[in-house]
Amino acid sequence: MRVHGLKCPLHPLQVLSWVVVTADIAGFSVLGLPLLNGDVARVVTAVLFVACTLVLLLAAARATICDPADPRSRGGTTSDHNTQLLLKCAYCEQMVLDSSHHCKACGKCVQEFDHHCMWLNNCIGKKNYSAFVWSIGSVAAMTGVMLASCVALVLEYLLDNSRLTKDLEELYGGVVREAALAVWIGLITVNLPLFLLDGQLIVLHLFLLSRSLTTYQYIQLKRQELREKEDKTQGGAGFSLQGRSLPRCMDWIVFSYRRTRQRRSRRISPTDVAGIEAAKVVEASAEEGNVPVHHRLPPPLRATSTGNAEAVDVVQACSDSSTSNS
To answer: What's the burial of 3, exposed, middle or buried (CB within 10 Å: 0-12/13-18/19+)?
Structure first.
């Protein structure tokens, strides 16, 4: 069971994020910030960059070391136990809240599960969702400051590099202009895709917050909506997004359309009782890797008209037998 995001094994994307952030801070602090034109520009940019970096480091650390597990999965209690239904997890076999879901990557049930973040190597749930939001917001701000500054330096280099040449000579002596240009282009190349991806992620979570949905719930409702469109049925309208989902260009970062089509192609067309049961088995196995599984206690047996008729026949037969024996 993974308690927090720093527990080994570390995810490759997590290590990559550490390397990229360290390189960004070092490169921009040495060959970006000191070369900006004007004291006011340097001071304002420095304040913004330091503030964004501190918020990023603190929020990412909080989201990484936090344990978002359902307290009941560890034998604890929660104030929500009187208002939420308890379910038994099929993986860890613990009674957890209805809003909790099991993460197979972390091996635990997460309260108000949103998603498993590979960049933080930890699940995002009720306890660390706010820290996660601050993290992605500060990443967008930090990369935006670096991009704006580096683009301004590159434009100045192309138009008139006399001031840059003089500043480089005064600050670093033998550093040539081409080396500084390579650093600026490198920062732009690395951070522009990150800025665009992070911007899409921010838009997605703003949309989810406006709909009071988690990422996990959105994925399930989106999958249900696509199935309803393919099946051309009217059922399940209460569980779908009813067409109010994001376009494909905005939610591809969390929703795999190809994987959904592959699941769809594996579905069995049930023509009888055996086919229906087989379809249920295939659907359950297809969802196992992504859908946190909980199961309720089996419903109590209920009397049916057929069962009542059989019971009456048995009682009548017993009555006739006792009459003949007497």
So the answer is: middle
CB 52 within 8 A of CB 142: yes
Q: Cα–Cα distance between 83 and 98 in angstroms, integer?
A: 10
The size of the chain, in residues, is: 326
Contact 10, 19 (CB under 8 A): no
Q: In this structure, what are the phi and psi dihedrals at residue 295, rounded to the nearest 5 degrees?
A: -135, 140
Cβ neighbours of residue 128 closer than 8 Å, sequence gap 6 or more: 62, 63, 66, 68, 122
Burial of 73 (0-12, 13-18, 19+ CB in 10 A): buried
Least confident of 35-49, 74-88, 129-143, 272-286: 272-286
pTM (2 decimals)?
0.72
As given in the structure block, the two tokens for residue 34 are 């000191």
